[in-house]
Amino acid sequence: MNLAIIPARGGSKRIPRKNIKLFCGKPMIAWSIEAALQSGCFDQVIVSTDDEEIAEVARCYGATVPFMRPAELSDDHTGTIPVIRHGIEWFHAQGQSVEHTCCLYATAPFVSPEDIRRGFDTLAEVGCDYAFSVTSYAFPIQRAIRLNAEGRVEMFNTEHFNTRSQDLEEAYHDAGQFYWGRSDAWLQGRMIFNPGSTPVVLPRHRVQDIDTPEDWVRAEWLFKAMQAETQ
């Protein structure tokens, strides 16, 4: 079985009720659920939550909520891997074998069915532990600066002050959309950011962290612009 697990706990702090707050006319989580269903990759699309309201919204948009996530996996310090492992173990306890599992974040309205399929194809073709979405940094990280205790500027890597941008190695970061993995990798707690993983590269304009109200406004502007382009 191929399983999609969408983690969506109820305790968002910076944007209250973020997982079900309306984003461009739909609860945020609805965009992830619909992309998962439209991808055609999954035998089941489930939401792992500790919150009954989130569970009800998830069901309304076509996901299932076969269990409520326990409190010990629903605090601010619980990582993604234990939550996904819990979901896989629940299905195994019901006598259902899970071969591949995709963690799909509830706050990823830019995720597309095509990219989810591409992630699965990459996992299958390469034979890696994980295949997950990444995108490139817009500026060379080797020339990044920090502000010191006196409010002055310091370079992280002073040796690159005179290095041309085009001569620096391109760097990538987690796009925060989806993480395909072999179920044994999730169960064994293997790290996602390691040589056993393969990237699924996305263009920067389709990647947006949504952690603050300012992020939310920017994301809606970008999302509406992208929708207008396709109409």
Shape: globular
Note the run of SSEs as H and E: EEEHEHHEHEEEEHEH
**What's the arrangement of strands in the largest beta sheet?**
4-1-5-9-6-10
What proportion of the residues is helical, as a percent range?
Answer: 25-40%
Radius of gyration: 19 Å
What's the number of extended β-strand segments? 10
Chain oligomer state: single chain
Rounded to the nearest angstrom, the distance between the terminal CA atoms is 36 Å
CATH H-level superfamily title:
Spore Coat Polysaccharide Biosynthesis Protein SpsA, Chain A
Main β sheet profile: 6 strands, mixed
Ranges where pLDDT stays below 50 over 5 or more residues in a row are none
- Overall average residue pLDDT: 95
The CATH architecture can be named as: Alpha-Beta Complex
Our count of helices gives: 6
CATH topology: Spore Coat Polysaccharide Biosynthesis Protein SpsA, Chain A
The total number of structural domains is 1
Protein name: Pseudaminic acid cytidylyltransferase
Keywords: Nucleotidyltransferase, Transferase
GO molecular function, one term: N-acylneuraminate cytidylyltransferase activity
InterPro entries: CMP-NeuNAc_synthase, Cytidylyl_trans, Nucleotide-diphossugar_trans, PseF
